Amino acid sequence: MNVEHNAIEVRDVSVEYGDVRALVDVSVGFAPRRIHAVVGQNGAGKTTFARVAAGIVQPVRGTLSIGGREVPVGRVGAARAAGIEIVHQSFALPPSFTVAEAMEFGAEGGRGVFTRGELERRWKRHLEALGVAVGPRERIRDLPVETQQAVEIARALVTDAKVLILDEPTAVLSPSGVEKLFERLRVMQASGVTILLILHKIREVLSIAETVTVLRGGRLVEGPVETSATEPHRLASAIIGSGLEGTLSAPDVDALVGAAEEDDAAGAGPAAGNPVAAAGTPILAMRGVSTRPDPEGPALADITLSIARGEIVGVAGVEGNGQRTLVRALSHLADLTAGDIALDGAEVTRRPLAERRAAGLRIIPFERNTEGLSLSSPLWENWSARQLLLGGVLRLINPARIRKACEAALKSWDVRFSTPNQPAGSLSGGNAQKVILAREIDDSATLIIAAQPTRGLDVGATAFVWKALREAKARGCGILLISSDLDELFDISDRVVVMLSGRISGEFAPPYHLGEVGAAMTGAGR
Amino acid sequence: MNGPLGQVFRALVYVLIGLALCGIIFELAGYSAPLMFQSIAEGAFLSVRAWQNSLRWGLPLFLTALGVVISFRCGFFNIGAQGQFYMGAIAATFVVDGLSGAPAFVVIPLTFLAGLAGGGLWALWPGLLRVKSGTDEVITTLMGNFIATLFLVYVTSGPLKDPSGTGQAASSRPVAEMYRIGAANAVSPAIIAICVLVGIGAWVLVNRTAFGVLSSLAGRNPIMVVWQGAKLSRLGLAGFVLGGALAGLAGTIEVLGPIGRLSSGMLPTHGFTAILIALVANLSVLATAFVAIFFGGLAAAGLYLPVLAGLPAAAIDIINAAIALFITARAWPKRLAGFFGQRRSAP
């Protein structure tokens, strides 16, 4: 045996979802017992690739071999039997289960009848062996995301996995959590597991992976190449493609692909010409704001925050630390127990959202498809909702004129659509987000809350959103940008605050230091 | 054919399938299907008299169906039209009976106000329960129907009982001639005028006001409208109460017009046929007008069925039920196709 077989190899794989070609003739193999990264922007086909490799997605053509042996494509059972396990991007553990139950749930060949004690003993040993500090009786929903992920990885290793695929495992983690995950992966690699990581930050790729493979628009662009033989800027252009690169500034490119070095993480901060948060009435002034616990996150505790005209304030934090409650409190959708909120000097603590919107508050909400748009309603209704609410509901309107205005507005925001009557759900994510921007960013906007405005968008749409926010800032709007992407925050924020358990745990000005912000996100060093 | 008219057209195809299916069933049961269709056509549409009858039954249905359209568009599944229709009729009868003797120009407007209020208030409590505490309005409005039906039995055999009644079905005293807006079992210019005005008003409300757009957005995605700063409870409640008021208006018209009194168990399927009409019309105001007259025609033909085809008048209920079945099932073929299509592409 002179040539060792690839641990996992796909040949000429193509995947189509309706008209969309998610993967086009991808052929690539990964050597055993190494850590491989697959990178690419949103929509590049990374997740589809991972799912083909795990036997979850059935390609229209192509083959899959594991350890040199071909296995039927699109069969999860066959792939698992051959030793492939996958940890999904959004965790698949049932939230109401205890850890032991969740582990048993994924295991194969268990007996049909067991006692609780037996179950807990068995899985406690397994978890301890993997160094996961968690009690088998704890409920999944009570665990922090990092532990949930560790349990999920432990579950994937219950069977004798030879290849472990992790789909964007770092997206939910703080910088220190990422470090811990990487430690764990290195230990697993040492015990002979091949690891395939789907990532989208170059910094992470370079710190953990031995080879890197780049996908763009469903095609294999490069790889696998040794990470030691490449460098950030080459990878960045491979990921983004030459078409767009020319239109983006260098810091923007770095932010898009997470290529900035640890030491100078977008150290330059936002571009020059930033009108220093001058004296004068702030656009937003929150003083000692506390709320009741919200179904969507912890209660806010004593939040004091102000935003000046022409200032972008970024909110960093691990998801679920009160960011949603913060947006809800500003929108009068969460009950305040203490503190007050003023918009442009006028107290609005008890004023309903309609009045706050009339005063210039605009919201790009977290959930584009539920909070932002009514997907089954026509575009023009979605676009006009804000203006329709400004006056009495019984006043007469002229739908034809609104449709015409909507058409003009959407065109000027570069939305790709065919008619204002088409349902909002027929647009792609990037176009749908532009419809929301077209509605929320207008001349009378004074404070714009942008909650995860680029999540799930491709490079072009992300750059478009950044441009729109910067233009709004140049016109004098205050902007509150909530994002879980530190590179994005560092690139465009004038100031970054960090939220932890409903409090503000740190405030930073450029140049930002990834380590410091990361420490504030987890409460370390306090 | 994907516009609103296309959808109505497709719905009408289901109506025809329902009719054809009933034809086959009655043919197999020993009746004559051609005679059945002939009597429906003659009873509903083939003479001036038939058209008058179709309007007599169709116009009150139109008003109630408009109410259903408005509350459905707001995202509230108000199936209590029957109860709201009864409560409107009861409130109207109390006023017209209690003010007996007063001049008509006072009594008639007050009667209409009472009818509107009766139907509207009977929709208010399920609406409040829904927006304040999230109680499922399907359950509450359905229960409301039973309560209203029993309340109708009570008032017609108690407070409003006609002492000279012959005792067949308990009923109120006949409405005095001076307060009537139409002859017995007939349509009248006044009724047509009311329906045209209300129809135009509803069309403007749905298609030409901010309320129309916002309520339909709220009906499809209430969360999004809340994030725009709308008071969902107010929008929804308005639609709900308006829907009930329109059913109450239909009840008032029946009392002051074609029926001319309140009677226990009157038009027991009125509200449910109205829901059917709203669904066939795909919640479009304009389409509701045509569909309501079509179903009014079916109701009118119910009287001809025994005479011409020897079928019981209840055959019309069977036809309505068959149509309802197909309308509710129309979402299914697509869903099933999607299910099997997916299975096929990923075996």
How does this model look, in words?
The complex is a heterodimer of chains A (526) and B (347). With 526 residues, chain A is an alpha/beta fold. Chain A has four domains: 156 residues, 3-Layer(aba) Sandwich (Rossmann fold); 65 residues, no CATH class; 174 residues, P-loop containing nucleotide triphosphate hydrolases (Rossmann fold); 64 residues, no CATH class. Chain A is 34% helix and 22% strand. Chain A has 19 helices and 20 strands. Chain A has a six-stranded mixed sheet with strand order 6-7-8-3-9-10, with helices on both faces. In chain A, strands 16-17-18-13-19-20 form a six-stranded mixed sheet, sandwiched between helices. A four-stranded antiparallel sheet of chain A has the order 2-1-4-5, covered by helices on one side. The termini of chain A are far apart. About 3% of the residues of chain A have low confidence. By secondary structure, chain B is mainly alpha-helical. Chain B has one domain: ABC transporter involved in vitamin B12 uptake, BtuC, CATH 1.10.3470. The longest helix of chain B has 30 residues. Chain B is globular, with a radius of gyration of 21 Å. The C terminus of chain B is likely disordered. Classes of the chains: A alpha/beta (526), B mainly alpha (347).
Short description:
By secondary structure, chain A is α/β, with parallel strands linked by helices.
H-E string of chain B? HHHHHHHHHHHHHHH
Q: Work out the number of β strands of chain A.
A: 20
CA-atom Rg of chain B in angstroms: 21 Å
Q: Which segments of chain A are poorly predicted (pLDDT under 50) over 5 or more consecutive residues?
A: 264-277
